[in-house]
Write a structure and sequence with these properties.
This protein has 117 residues and is mainly α. The protein has one domain. The chain contains five helices and no strands. It is elongated, with a radius of gyration of 15 Å. 20% of the residues are buried. The N terminus is likely disordered.
Length: 117
């Protein structure tokens, strides 16, 4: 891949992932804990979708167990930022239970936006 292609792909990825990666998890109230989860999730889902689009070998290792481990670690890290609002942990857990939907939808969007008209 030449430099022009890489730059074009990077721009397309950034534009495509900005809205989808900022998906609303649906927290009732957003304190520091929920903001931390939103930020961590946005970064994580972009990376996973990019691995799929780029056919990166790391995408093959994404499964329920690895996502569950990431979710637990992220919850623990975000607890250091502040107390969770009532229901936030459960809501995030339910949201992450549909990780395939989120990752594959974002990857499909990236692929569509990367295609020429």
């Amino acid at each position: 891949m030449n430099v022009r292609t890489v730059c074009l792909l990077a721009g397309v990825l950034l534009a495509a992932t900005t809205n989808l990666a900022n998906a609303d998890i649906g927290f009732t109230r957003k304190g520091p804990f929920e903001a931390c989860l939103d930020g961590a999730y946005g970064t994580w889902v972009k990376i996973q979708a990019e691995h799929l689009v780029n056919e990166d070998r790391r995408a093959q290792h994404l499964d329920d167990a690895s996502v569950a481990a990431w979710t637990v670690a992220t919850l623990n890290d975000c607890r250091k930022r502040g107390a969770a609002e009532a229901g936030s942990v459960e809501r995030f857990g339910r949201y992450m239970a549909r990780w395939r939907e989120h990752v594959f939808d974002l990857a499909a969007s990236i692929r569509r936006s990367g295609q020429s008209d």
